[in-house]
Design brief:
Layout lengths: L2 E3 L5 E8 L4 H12 L4 E7 L4 E6 L5 H10 L3 E5 L1
Antiparallel strand pairs: 1-2, 2-4, 2-5, 3-4
Length: 79
């Protein structure tokens, strides 16, 4: 599990997502995860499959998995 607090009230978590191959993929995943309550920032990188999420509190893994599934990709776990 790669989750740590950057600033008070901020948690950064890095997820591994399978299937992203381009900027459109990054946008789809970022858009879906951004819709989760408490998410303040999302950065997806197709070349590594890493999605860095900053939130106000630790996120429910099932909510993240559902968002990634909705975007058409697979959450492989936390990086």
């Amino acid at each position: 599990m790669t989750a740590h607090t950057d600033t008070p009230g901020s948690v950064t978590t890095v997820y591994q997502v399978s299937g992203m191959s381009c900027g459109h993929c990054e946008g789809s995943v970022s858009g879906e995860i951004s819709g989760i309550a408490g998410v303040t920032s999302v950065k997806a990188v197709a070349s590594t499959g890493e999605v860095t999420v900053i939130s106000t509190a630790p996120l429910d893994d099932e909510a993240v998995r559902a968002a990634v599934d909705e975007a058409g990709f697979e959450l492989a776990g936390q990086a």
